[in-house]
Amino acid sequence: MSDGQVEEQTVSLVDVLKEDEELEEEASAVLAGSDSDHCSYPQGYVKRQAVYACHTCTPGGGEAAGVCLACSYKCHEGHHLYELYTKRNFRCDCGNRKFSELQCKLSPEKDDVNHLNKYSHNFFGVYCTCNRPYPDPDDQVEDEMIQCVVCEDWLHGRHLGSEVPDCVELQEMICESCMTKNSFLWTYAAHLAVPGVDLKQEAEADESNTKKEEKDDDVIEPSCKRSREEAGPNCKLKELQAIDQKRVQSGAVFWPSGWRSKLCSCNTCKERMAAAGVSFLSDESDTVLAYENKGKNSEQTARGNDPLMSALDNLNRVQQLEIIHGYNDMKTELKDFLQKFAAEGKVSHTYIYSLIGR
User: Fold this and answer.
1) Could you tell me if 291 and 48 are in contact, meaning their C-beta atoms sit under 8 angstroms apart?
2) Are 273 and 279 in contact (CB under 8 A)?
3) What confidence score (pLDDT) does residue 350 get?
4) Which among 34, 156, 244, 254 is least buried, having the fewest CB atoms inside 10 angstroms?
5) Dist CA 46 CA 157 (whole Å)
6) What Å distances lie between residue 213 and 12, 210, 222, 248, 345, CA to CA?
7) Which UniProt keywords apply (predicted)?
8) What distances in angstroms separate CA 69 from CA 30, 50, 66, 72, 344, one per listed residue?
9) How does the average pLDDT of the chain come out, rounded?
10) Best-predicted range by mean pLDDT (199-203, 278-282, 320-324)
11) Burial (CB count within 10 angstroms: exposed 0-12, middle 13-18, buried 19+), residue 11
């Protein structure tokens, strides 16, 4: 084999390692921010952490429950787990009253139930307004799923009622249901949100603009009048309402980076958001992106200098070629191993990938 051929193979190894590093970073984004060795229960309601639901221990028809990353390893190994990505202000349920036949190995002393935890159909392995599993064996349509930052449900892009914008991975989404429940957000959406195409409006193009405007006015006016009466001085929301910029109030809304910092922080608005249970929207560190970046930084700090790359620098080309073949064989075997778990709908903790196609 010529030197030129050896050199080409050596470069390809670096490319493979970089590709693997990217996959590891994706996993680290979700997992590095959570403790894999200790149950998070003693920490109380953790601001954000990776959460799993165990179908083996809490099957459909029972009570919804979630467990932390460490318990998914230590207490539910080999079980049928649903990866729920991350959840906000969640306390580990592992071994409490909802698990009649299982005791937590890491933190056995727990209250019967965590009353402040919020659950959804996600804990039973179904998602979106269509209430279907992911991946869905009966759905042949390739479609990304996007998480609502309020209810934290995952929705198919085609079920959002609005067009998914470019660079969606850098934006936050609030589903139509959560926008409707928190109607004051429509005012912010008219001024701060990413401009989009309302798919429902396109589908109903035969309706007159006059009727549509009357319908919008019916929805907007009551909330605006109440806000104008209650809002105190220097209220950003009141100022935006005075501009009276309209936006069709249907479909999911996408928000650009930094939008949370532009929400009003006057006492009246703080009270309104607290009463609605969405105070977290004014916290920029609450975002999944902030959590992911924290996880990546923690992993990079812990990793330090990569010993594998350092070792490669000290090997000759023949030794590097031998590593290439061994590495590719290992990678193939690992891929085959993980595919068995995917086929069974289970989670393999040998090498974690996020549930929702990231």
Assistant:
1) yes
2) yes
3) 38
4) 244
5) 29
6) 60, 5, 15, 9, 47
7) Isopeptide bond, Metal-binding, Phosphoprotein, Transferase, Ubl conjugation, Ubl conjugation pathway, Zinc, Zinc-finger
8) 10, 6, 10, 5, 20
9) 80
10) 278-282
11) exposed
Three state DSSP letters for 162-192 = ECCCCCHHHCEEECHHHHHHCCCHHHHHHHH
Residue entry with tokens 């932390």: 68
Exposed/middle/buried for residue 8 (C-beta within 10 Å: 0-12, 13-18, 19+): exposed
Closest CA to 86 of 358, 291, 258, 298: 291
Please enumerate in sequence order all residues whose Cβ is within 8 A of that of 43, keeping only pairs 6 or more positions apart, or say none: none
Residue with tokens 């001085």: 233
Tokens standing for residue 176: 């139509």
Pairing of strands 67-68, 81-90: unpaired
pLDDT over 60 at 182, yes or no: yes
Q: At 20, list the tokens.
A: 């693997």
Which pLDDT does position 220 carry in this prediction?
40
pLDDT given at position 357: 38
Helices (H), 32-104: 69-74
DSSP SS3 for 148: strand
Question: What are the percentages of helix, strand and coil residues in the chain, rounded to 5?
Answer: 45, 10, 40
Amino acid at 166: D
CB contact at 8 A, 16 and 327 = yes
Instruction: Indicate the pTM of the whole model.
Output: 0.71
What was the pLDDT predicted at 293? 81
Percent of the chain with pLDDT over 70: 66
Cβ-proximal residues to 289 (8 Å cutoff; 6+ apart), any chain = 170, 257
pLDDT tens-digit readout, 229-255: 445 568 999 999 999 888 899 999 999
Residue with structure tokens 């703080």? 270
